[in-house]
Amino acid sequence: MNIRKFQEADADEVSALIVTTLRTTNIKDYSFEYIENDVKILQPYNILERARWTHFYVACDDNKIVGCGAIGPYWDKENESSLFTIFVLPEYQGRGIGRKIIETLEQDEYFLRAKSIEIPASITGTPFYRKMGYDYKNGICTPDEEGLLRLEKYR
Asked: Dihedral of CA 86/87/93/97: which sign?
């Protein structure tokens, strides 16, 4: 397994990976309607747009993309960054791929220049991110109006 920078040709496969993960793993914590709304906004063109303003990475098992993650500036601030779009195919979960994606993002220049890093985390992903050292922002441990938990880590 290796992690590399996202390429434009990856957009279809990354979108399909996210859709599969949402519909298989995240459906345990969210309604069908919520998941399908996310599916609509995570199509290949949305992935390409996100890759334009973040540093986007993919995890590959041979030539198959099995995970992804991105880091970008938080509202154009130099000392704050956010992690986005972190997904691992269901059949590859629990193998350390998510950890390797986070470790890669934490070596990226957007992470290294930041004093704080935020993750708009799904209910599903929150236990994983907490194991990776992220904690509830402002102590708030309930989902916001978007159905997400805001997690953060200070450097």
From this structure: negative
